[in-house]
Amino acid sequence: xxxxxxxxxxxxxxxxxxxxGWIWGENGYFRDRGxxxxxxxxxxxxxxxxxxxxxxxxxxxxxxxxxxxSDVKGEYEVxxxxxxxxxxxxxxxxxxNSGDSSWLVAQRVPAEVWPGxxxxxxxxxxxxxxxxxxxxxxxxxxxxxxxxxxxxxxRLTGRVGGLDSxxxxxxxxxxxxxxxxxxxxxxxxxxxxxxxxxxxxxxxERSVNKTLDAALLDELQASLTRSxxxxxxxxxxxxxxxxxxxxxxxxxxxxxxxxxxxxxxxDRAWSGxxxxxxxxxxxxxxxxRTLGVYYVNLAEGPQRNNExxxxxxxxxxxxxxxxxxxxxxxxYQVRLTAVGDTVQVTVEKDINTVxxxxxxRKVLDMIQENLG
Length: 372
Fold this sequence. Notes:
Shape: flat
Largest sheet: 7 strands, antiparallel
Radius of gyration: 37 Å
CATH topology of the domain at 93-229: TATA-Binding Protein
Order of helices and strands: HHEEHEEEHEEHHEEHEEHHEEEH
CATH architecture of the domain at 93-229: 2-Layer Sandwich
Strand content: 15-25%
Number of strands: 14
Structural class: alpha+beta
Helix content: 25-40%
CATH class of the domain at 93-229: Alpha Beta
Low-confidence stretches: none
CATH superfamily of the domain at 93-229: Outer membrane protein assembly factor BamC
């Protein structure tokens, strides 16, 4: 009986599967429609009566121009995609305008822009008589137009009015940290007086010769851009004169913990300490400018982005085990705190624990040596 039931079930299954053509076959409801396009025929577009106004009806699925024709013989070569329109490289230096004010924005920290800006005016024949790198300012002497270099005269002639042998001009340049991180803003303002006069005409917030200021900013932008394109770079030593504080003093707090006092504002102190840590070859794992903290690891050397493992490291396992690095890590926090007109630099194990005095003094000594 069981054998008869099994044979009956098998016969029923065979009969059912052989009759599934109405579902999956060529004429079935769920047939494969992947090749239906091969039998498609082009029809004439819809025609409207002549007296009917209607917008143009474009096909919803237009046929690409480069498509394989059924009459073409041989192997089909896929056409190359059309080239994308690539925008020109954005310069590191751009001119900004707001009302009557104009300034130059640099995608670099002030310490890197300072040497290039100063060099531009010196090459143009301007005599710098007063400079304050700590505040990012310098001024030129009273000069007639014909006292400038011949190249500067030729570039300004025709663009600037009021420059002749009967007037004297001096320029004040100011560099400030930009609104965005790691940017700078450069302002130029000029003053004029009659030639031979001894009047001490002060600089004003609004220039007396806007065309001259705009032309100098334009020429400065071109000069800095050319320097970058030609591979010019600013070393850490070149930035010393800009962010070096007026006075650096290593002292102790009431508990005997070493403190480094910098007579400068927080922006330049932050820049100077960061530069000093790099020059001292200290490993900086992370930074938090809002808290004023550099996170350093005294057990490791400086981190270099372009450093590649050697031949044997690549052959026998690549980089070092992270567990080994963590086991020998000596992590500390170099904290900057603004106190009045000065900035105090301390070394901590964490926010609640100060670093050992010998470790703190060692780190602060290295920072002090490289501050300039």
